[in-house]
Amino acid sequence: HAGHGHGATERIRPDMNMRRWLITLTACLLVLAALAGIKYQQIRAAIAFGASFPEPSESVEAQRVARSVAASHVAIIGEIVAPESLELRNELEGRVSAVHMTPGSRVRHGEILLQFDISEEGARLEAAKASAALAALNLKRLQQLLTNNSVSRDRVDQARAEADIALAGVRQLEAIIAKKTLRAPFDAVVGLHDIEAGEYLAANTAIVMLMGVKDFLWVDFNLPPAQASVDVGGTVEVSVAGHAGDALKARVIARNPAVSLQSRNLRYRARLDSAPGIAPGSVVNLRVPTGERSAIRVPTPAVVHDDMG
Questions:
Q1: 181 with 113: CB under 8 angstroms?
Q2: Residue 294: beta bridge partners?
Q3: Order of strands, edge to edge, in the sheet holding 200-201?
Q4: Which pick of 3, 158, 193, 274 has the fewest CB atoms within 10 Å?
Q5: Is the pTM of this model over 0.70?
């Protein structure tokens, strides 16, 4: 009887396991069905919400375009150059006796800017002038005696040579004094300097920068030979960052006859007649014409750029 009961227990256990699996599977299916129903309702709600909006639209204006001749340009960088500018240097060494230039002031052509000590040369010049005057008087007296054959022609020629030598000595000292008197070579604005009277300067010392006063400026720029189609007399547009207003017009006045050995570009120079507030040495933007080509032009609003340009 006990053995019979053990066999019945073994037959009942598989049925219980099967029942548990069915219950678990049924529960999972119910959960999935519930989630699917919720998602379906959400999708239907989103579709209905999107359908409530009207179709996207845009107002457009049609225009007829045709092929025409258009000028092509290239944008480059140029440099403003003063027609007259130099760094003033002294040819001879010496001690400064007077400074007649003020930084930032305007000086006229020929005005004395710096005077070196010429006291020694001045004294020698006075002696040379006296010797030249004496030699001239001696020559004149001998020439009068030559008319009466009272003196030989060789003596007169010797006196003429002595007079010329004396006069050359005067001119030599005047040249030295002129080299020690530095004058403005043109109308200019004086740059910054720190030269004081009494200072000793060696030869070829950089003294001050002089910037010429002109009513026009030059614009120098480079172009590759493949784009160098602008002719002398042509016009380029000049614009300066920070300067409001329309672009300025500059006329090309010169071009180098050969390309640069360093950059392999052609160097151009244009004249800018109106350049208010632009200082020499400034960097400007240039728009240089490079020829004409056939093209179809469309209004700017008709072109839309993407993120890649």
A1: no
A2: 69
A3: 181-183, 112-116, 94-99, 200-201
A4: 3
A5: no
Torsion sign (Cα): 91, 94, 98, 102? positive
CA distances from 168 to 47, 129, 161, 174, 206 (A): 110, 10, 10, 10, 31
Residue 8 has pLDDT above 60, yes or no: no
Tens of pLDDT along 188-239? 999 999 999 999 999 999 999 999 988 899 999 998 888 777 888 888 989 8
SS3 at position 149: coil
Cα end-to-end distance, the chain, whole Å: 94
Neighbour count for residue 221 (Cβ, 10 Å): 22
For 222, the token pair is: 């480079």
Residues 6+ apart with CB under 8 A from 257: none
Q: What is d(CA 149, CA 99) in angstroms, rounded to the nearest whole number?
A: 57
Q: For 86-129, what is each residue's pLDDT tens digit?
A: 999 999 999 999 999 999 999 999 999 999 999 999 999 999 99
